[in-house]
Design goal:
Layout lengths: L18 E6 L5 E2 L5 E2 L2 E8 L9 E5 L24 E2 L4 E2 L4 E5 L31 H14 L5 E7 L1 H12 L4 E7 L7 H15 L16 H15 L2 H7 L18 H13 L5 H13 L10 H5 L3 E7 L7 H13 L4 E6 L13 H12 L6 H4 L1
Parallel strand pairs: 5-8, 5-9, 6-7, 9-10, 10-11, 11-12
Antiparallel strand pairs: 1-4, 2-3, 4-8
Length: about 375
């Protein structure tokens, strides 16, 4: 007799809602790493899963340059989160087990205080009067959101690209607040080439006639500059192999006479990416957040490893073999510095044709690695490390 095996009931879709919290007020302002002060800071965030009784199952998601709080699930507008393939019931970051928090970072433009926010001291938008930020400021705000949600200690912080930089900064500066950190497709120090890419993008924005010294109205921003910056950046996010696989030398409109418009399919793709970007991102946030990345160099601090050596964090560092924006050498540099301090660190280079964007995609070896890392116990039992 053959026993019938019933398939598991399909899990209900993950539905999400973006909330906001005022974490800093004039009575308790945010003091930035620079010493400047923001009197009010509101943060947009989402949560997935359920926090357990002792608040020991919390995972923080740090987003990349143009991300936001909506990392997973489907919201009321029908939009799917930018990392929905990674976060959710039964997924590598399993919300049946973990309480996951994702927020829009400081300086952003989708609900968290940034340069387009109103300065409470003047009643006008900050514009370029918004203070320059440091990676440490992002983490300070993340920790404040955690306290607001009842989480003092995190099982893991996870991020790709700029998100990975935040995870690294968090683990180095505040190791007593986190057990594990996943640093994915990231860097501890941008190369001159990387700084150059960001510089050209910023110049495209600031040289746009509509930039107006950063005081442009909502409806008349530097759209040409911002879309150009996005188009150029997007080229760096894919590998040459990915571009060849997606587009090759295909023409967009067969039979069209040659000109200086959109002749090739890749040109149409980039134009679409630039135009779409205008509907969801702000030019000033682009300036501020890319500048934070330029100056990030945590291991240049003489005491960079002092705190985490005394209170070890388990690290996972991942790179992708076709990522030329933040190549595997960037990840190996991080690994070498952590290993020199005898910290527990796992490293893997993942094969993928899709370049830097691979960290956002459902690459099987990548997802298997993330799933396994979340399922195993920390290499250093945290009760012993503390």
């Amino acid at each position: 007799m053959v026993e019938r095996v019933q398939s598991a009931a399909p899990r209900p879709p993950l539905t999400t809602e973006t909330r906001d919290a005022m974490l800093f007020t004039p009575d308790a302002p945010l003091v930035l790493a620079s010493g400047e002060v923001l009197e009010e800071v509101t943060v947009a965030y989402e949560t997935y899963g359920t926090l357990n009784a002792d608040a020991s199952n919390a995972v923080y998601i740090c987003h990349a340059l143009t991300g936001d709080a909506h990392a997973a699930g489907t919201n009321a507008a029908g939009a799917v989160g930018w990392w929905d393939n990674m976060i959710g019931p039964g997924k590598p970051i399993d919300t049946d087990r973990w309480f996951v928090v994702s927020s829009n970072l400081l300086g952003g433009c989708t609900g968290t205080t940034g340069p387009r926010s109103v300065n409470p001291s003047t009643g006008e938008r900050y514009g370029l009067d918004f203070p320059l930020l440091d990676m440490a400021d992002f983490v300070t705000v993340h920790l404040a959101l955690g306290r607001f949600l009842g989480v003092e200690h995190w099982s893991a912080v996870v991020g790709g690209s700029l998100g990975g930089m935040q995870a690294l900064e968090w683990a180095l500066r505040h190791p007593d607040t986190v057990d594990r950190a996943a640093v994915i497709a990231a860097s501890s120090r941008l190369t001159a080439q990387n700084i150059g890419f960001s510089a050209v993008g910023r110049q495209a924005i600031m040289r746009d006639a509509r930039f107006a010294g950063g005081q442009f109205p909502e409806s008349q921003g530097p759209d040409t500059g911002l879309s150009t910056a996005r188009m150029m950046a997007h080229i760096t996010y894919l590998s040459e192999g990915a571009f060849e696989q997606k587009f090759g030398r295909d023409v967009q409109y067969p039979g069209q006479a040659r000109g200086f418009g959109v002749d090739f399919a890749v040109e149409s793709y980039l134009e679409h990416q630039g135009s779409k970007f205008l509907t969801r991102f702000d030019a000033l946030s682009y300036l501020y957040l890319t500048r934070v990345m330029d100056y990030f160099d945590p291991f240049a601090r003489t005491d960079a490893l002092k705190a985490v050596t005394a209170d070890p964090v388990n690290f996972l560092v991942l790179s992708f073999d076709s990522d030329w924006r933040f190549s595997t050498e960037h990840s190996r540099r991080i690994v070498r510095r952590l290993e020199q301090a005898e910290l527990p660190v796992s490293f893997r280079e993942i094969a993928s044709v899709w370049g830097h964007d691979s960290f956002l995609l459902e690459v099987p070896e990548y997802h298997d690695t993330m799933r396994a890392w979340f399922e195993r116990e920390p290499l250093v039992p945290q009760e012993e490390a503390r």
